[in-house]
Automatic annotation (TrEMBL):
EC number: 2.7.13.3
TM annotation in the entry: 45-67, 134-157
UniProt keyword Transmembrane helix, yes or no: yes
SMART domains per record: HAMP, HATPase_c, HisKA
GO molecular function ontology, one term from the record: kinase activity
Name the record gives this protein: histidine kinase
Top-level taxon: Bacteria
HAMP domain span: 158-211
InterPro entries per UniProt: HAMP_dom (IPR003660), HATPase_C_sf (IPR036890), HATPase_dom (IPR003594), His_kinase_dom (IPR005467), HisK_dim/P_dom (IPR003661), HisK_dim/P_sf (IPR036097), Sig_transdc_His_kin-like_C (IPR004358), TCS_sensor_his_kinase (IPR050428)
Keywords noted in UniProt: Kinase, Membrane, Phosphoprotein, Transferase, Transmembrane, Transmembrane helix, Two-component regulatory system
């Protein structure tokens, strides 16, 4: 029926009702109610400073109270109503001093004992009152100083965290478009200054990474746009030619296929680069010498066709990692040495052990290169075309893939130019790791 309400569930009668209750029965927090202050670092440091001062102050006052109590426990001073004064060192009531009075009336022994007992009780009461007063005054002083220490702690914590707020504000304001900004925190060389310098170094690395990323995207777009434009022009010319023949159309399609093959090479190289930078989770054992021998069986005919002389010295160099990526590393090293060589040149390939570390080295003859050009060669799409090769032979990704694979294996690359021309590149892998070790952290390029 319309307007009918369902009976309450078994637990509905226990749920609170009214304007302050929610549908689940949990009371809604009043919007205008008192809210606890946010537990900032400054507040926690202030409470820490105040708590430490309170604890240390209470300990100091307790120690002072104990020392005063111990010092006055055996000897208390008194001032009697009848003019008697002196000190009582815990004498029993029956023991009488030789000169209890000076110039006063002579008392009997019993009267003297009673007088001593009365003076002793008054002195003890006076000591107790003095100790209570000391305790009360110390408590008041501790409370006042605790409030002062909290206030001073708040001010000091604010001054100490001021530079940290600068870092926070800069991190909030800096975006991907203004990574050139730096904090340059002033002040002493302390932990906060070190934090600011570390943040500046992070910004520098991010700026370099963003610039490299933008440059990489621009290069990829250019590399893929060139064969696409070539394909479109070839197709348009073939279609618009009124005198096209079967041979001309076949030649146009052949050129289109060549441009498509170049696109495939670029995409395959990019996928290999991305896979190398992504790292791997499981290590497998492999031998650099065996992988190098496999690669040489497919590259020897090209070396012979170019008139190059191969010198190989392959000794076992076991290591672990991803053998497929390692094979790509070796292939790119050999291809780079083959393509960028001189006619009738030489190519030397070695695998060996440098202590516990396996090493592969490739040296070739070739044109002379300035030492400053080495760093460029390991960046994506960087070519020295006028000195090394034409665009058709290289994509500019070979050595960048080598670097990415080496970093995925935590290996070290050493490269140098040779005096007579050419390059010497060696990759030093870390000491052989057990294949049972998996999911090792990988540092991407």
């Amino acid at each position: 029926m319309t307007g009918a309400t369902a009976p309450n569930a078994p637990g509905d009668q226990n749920r609170p009702t009214g304007p302050g209750a929610t549908a689940t029965g949990v009371p809604r927090r009043p919007a205008s109610g008192l809210r606890m202050p946010r537990r900032t670092v400054r507040l926690r440091l202030t409470m820490l400073f105040g708590g430490l001062f309170l604890i240390s102050g209470a300990g100091l006052l307790t120690l002072n109270y104990a020392l005063v109590s111990h010092a006055t426990q055996g000897a208390v001073s008194y001032q009697g109503a009848n003019g008697l004064s002196g000190s009582i060192d815990g004498l029993p009531p029956g023991q009488r001093p030789e000169h209890p009075t000076q110039g006063g009336p002579q008392l009997s022994a019993s009267q003297l004992d009673k007088q001593i007992q009365l003076l002793q009780s008054r002195a003890l009461q006076q000591r107790a009152d003095n100790m209570n007063a000391l305790l009360a005054q110390s408590g008041i002083a501790l409370a006042v100083m605790a409030v002062v220490s909290v206030a001073l702690g708040w001010v000091i914590a604010g001054r100490v965290l001021g530079r940290l707020r600068t870092v926070t504000s800069a991190a909030r304001d800096i975006s991907a478009t203004d990574l050139h900004r730096r904090l340059a925190l002033p002040g002493p060389d302390d932990e906060l200054k070190e934090l600011g310098d570390t943040f500046d170094e992070l910004l520098a690395r991010l700026e370099s990474s963003f610039q490299a990323h933008r440059q990489f995207i621009a290069n990829v777009s250019h590399e893929l746009r060139t064969p696409l434009a070539r394909q479109r022009v070839l197709s348009q010319l073939a279609v618009s030619d009124p005198d096209a023949t079967l041979d001309s159309l076949r030649e146009a399609h052949h050129r289109v296929l060549v441009a498509g093959s170049q696109q495939e090479r670029v995409i395959e190289a990019l996928l290999t680069l991305a896979r190398s930078q992504g790292g791997f989770e499981t290590r497998e054992p492999f031998d650099l010498a065996a992988l190098t021998a496999q690669v040489l069986t497919t590259r020897s005919p090209e070396a012979e066709s170019r008139g190059l002389t191969l010198h190989t010295h392959l000794t076992p160099a076991p290591t672990s990692g991803d053998p497929r990526l390692a094979e790509r590393l070796i292939t790119n090293l050999i291809d780079n040495a083959l393509r960028h060589n001189t006619p009738q040149g030489t190519l030397e390939i070695r695998t060996t052990m440098n202590g516990p570390c396996p090493v592969i080295s490739v040296a070739n003859t070739g044109p002379k290169l300035p030492p400053a050009a080495l760093e460029r060669l390991f960046k994506p799409f960087q070519r020295l075309e006028s000195e090394r090769t034409s665009r058709e032979e290289g994509l500019g990704l070979g050595l960048s893939i080598v670097q990415a694979i080496a970093e995925a294996h935590h290996a070290t690359i050493e490269a140098r130019t040779q005096p007579a021309g050419g390059l010497f590149i060696q990759v030093i892998f870390p000491a052989c790791v057990s294949p049972r070790m998996q999911r090792l952290p990988v540092h991407s390029a």
